[in-house]
Sequence to fold (296 residues):
Amino acid sequence: MRPLEDIYAGPRPVVSIEFWPPKTERGEASLFREAALLAELNPAFCSMTYGAGGSTRERTVDLVEAVHGKLGLDVMCHLTVVGQSRAEVRSVLTRLRAAGVPNIIALGGDPPPGEDWAPHPDGFTYANELVTEARADGFSVAVAGFPEVHPRAESRESDLRYLKAKVDAGACAVITQLFYDNADYFRFVEDARRAGIEAPIVPGVLPIQSAAQIRRFTALCGARIPDRLARALDTVADDDAAAVRLGIDYATEQGEELLRFGVPGFHFYSLNKSRSVLEIHRRLFDTPGDTSTQHI
Fold:
């Protein structure tokens, strides 16, 4: 597996894909079927999420090892501050190092449903502390960025200060939260550069699977649905198949503009489904005669 520094120093745009740990054997079988299809894109790496409060910690690490072993994909592990002691974090890092996994994404993390965010009494308080710990242990580290500001941030300025602290601690890439207005990403990059943050800022792309689902996701993470997209979602509110088609069209349109801007890559939030990511990727990178991008 290659460290993130090497991945983002190489040919661009870099394509990466995120999965989440299923709770059932049926869900796990589906994950491996979909991941096998997405492996045909030869992504630079995949990532595996933690559940709220670190609730899927063991499952996440198991799946990181399994996806790499069975499918040959390089996998980055999510690691969070919330819900974990320092000893538990170090145990995960030890296991990942033994498995040959060089990359993590260090996150504050989400609390369990119904609970307020709070650090573990024996854990880290901020994600930059987790970055420092992982870097000292030899890991390459990505962190999260929020084009529309983190929901718990006091202000846009304080959010950028926290991001700079994470990059100054050794993070070599920033992967953004989902967004549906590219203007938010462009402003975020401009503000980050002005604040002295030079790490690659990779847009996170979540293809729409249903109108209800995307409204729920954006409400949870504080993202905005632009008026044009909101009107389009109204027309597919009761038709998930049509919502998927809308999502493919919309993400392709976003992606084309982001490529013209010169993004370092795309991080696709797949929701353990291959169809949308495969089609968006085909439209962005496999158009006959298009030589403007390098296929990773």
Residues 4-207+263-276 form a domain with the TIM Barrel fold (CATH 3.20.20.220). Strands lie at 14-19, 45-48, 75-80, 103-107, 140-145, 173-178, 201-205, 265-269. Residues 240-261 form the longest helix (22 residues). Confidence is low (pLDDT under 50) at residues 288-296.
